[in-house]
Fold PLP-dependent aminotransferase family protein.
Amino acid sequence: MSARPWTPRLRRASGPLYAAIADAIAADITRGKLRAGERLPTHRELAEAVGASVGTVTRAYAEAERRGLVRGQVGSGTFVRDLTDPASYSPMLDRSRIDLGPTAAPIVAGDLGHCALAAALAGLAARADLGALAGYQAHGGSEAQRAAGARWLATTGVDADPDEITVCSGAQHATVLALAALASPAGVLVEELTYPGALAAAGWLRLPTHPVALDEHGLVPDALARACRDSGAKVLYCTPTHHNPTAAVMPKERRLAIVDICREHGVSIVENGALAPLVAAPPPPLAALAPERTYHLSSLSKATIPALRVGFLRAPAAARRALEVAAAATVWSGSPLLAEIAAQWITDGTAAAIRDARRAEAAARQQVAAARLGRWQVRSHPTAYFLWLELPPQRRALELVEQAHARDLLIGPSHVFAARPGNAPNAVRVSLGAARSRAELDRGLTILAELLDTPAWSALQ
């Protein structure tokens, strides 16, 4: 028996019918009634179902495609887009738009990072051993680079021996290496809202993901214990410090409870610490509380400049060989030039100086956000690069994203971060870092506040 074709639930307001159909598509994607890749009815089928002309449906599908909700394929039909892909909610990005969508390192006045990079490149060009830095290197990094990585991790409370460090091409590469080394058919436990890169890595490795409930402090211990029992998964991926997308910092007592549960169920931990350098004096990382089972990843991209694609993965010493094999299988070896700059910056204090400047800029931008969005339900941290905006019931996240896009403003809907997009909360993540200045950020947040104060376009419930 074939599945019943999708029919929009229309509650027409004063606008045209084609817009109401597009609104219905948006609402049912938000509710999970329409899923990525699903084929929508033909123009004629939908026209008959809603009592409209074929031309009206054609215009409705064109409007939905303009909003980034669907894609048309000549000869095959119209399909729901995969909205877990960040590119799908920022179509036609150009410099005229205000970008509050992706996580990006804030721009600092005078841009200390770019000035330091220019000096570092000039210094490399003058070095007598430049030829050696132009070749391949050890899969997991040189001894000096691993020692620098250990020093960098120490700034966030991770006590690591250089022999426990694998140098990676950024935190995303470290995520892939860790999950590949720990992979099992039972899959990975993840926070119900998590970094999209982790979901992409698990999907690429064909590992099922099992969402675990969150509260304002991070992972809920009882929910984790239940997920461990129900799924049989032996790997947990989580971000206890500066959680993405909610910016939560898990308190020490909660971390101890999470560690106890993982020990009880024999679960290894992949701890994302890429954003931890932005938090001054955070609670001890899981790698410090359970070093025997924690794979802790960090990088310099978020704390210094995105171009410095160098990451560090601290793992139990026994895992080093497996991680080097995984590194060889993925990138063979990272860029010696970038790794050399990273090691130099960590050693001479440049990385810490840029981190501090970016932390200060993030704090200033959070103050701008508080002034514009303070009366709304916002979750954040004083030095976070973004905030989590929970919407009132009468507003729908995807509608707000569409309204913002119409005003040349990009924001991130919650389903991009949801392990189960159909169950995403009614919220958006607002990046404060990608705007080119505080003044541009203020303009973007002013537009967002105006939209929040404006009645929704659709009366769909």
Notes: The domain at 17-80 is CATH 1.10.10.10 (Arc Repressor Mutant, subunit A). The CA atoms of residues 108 and 357 lie 7 Å apart.
